[in-house]
Structure prediction request, 182 residues.
Amino acid sequence: MDMPTPASRTFFDVVAIYASDGERFAREQLRIDVADHISPYAAARACAERRAYADPRIPGLAIFLVVTPVAGPNARSGLRNAASALACNVGCYLVLSTAHIRCSTAQMLDHWAQLYAHQQPLAVARMGFGWLISTCIVSERMAQSLPEEIPAILAFGRAQGCDHVLLDCDGREERRLPVYPW
Prediction:
């Protein structure tokens, strides 16, 4: 009698950020084991939704996920390839320290985040401890009106293949970008 062959599996590291009404209130890291025929995003989402932080009674609950394949013989060739079969847009973001912007720029980002999207000179959303910024290429004229550190941060995010940059107070400092004292 033939034994069924086990499905190939891949490990993924997941960072789940839980927010309510735009304010981050929890962050956790976990490792999941996913069969290759299952979307790693769907598996990560299901896992994050079963956690204590994901109480459906929390108003405006949002769960942001960063899913990264663990290097090794079972690592998938890339999350964008694995996600290509999904019927939704899939993107990724780079987390950087808020030390890469000046205090005056932080105040400007706060102001822009309060505006309607069509009024913002740059797509930005306020998070609990920082800002999520689109790395979309802005026009040359628009780039000239931005604080001087922002175009370099956006270019760095694009160079890493990211759709957004999350400037977070807990983010790591990148040695290739300037750091400013607060």
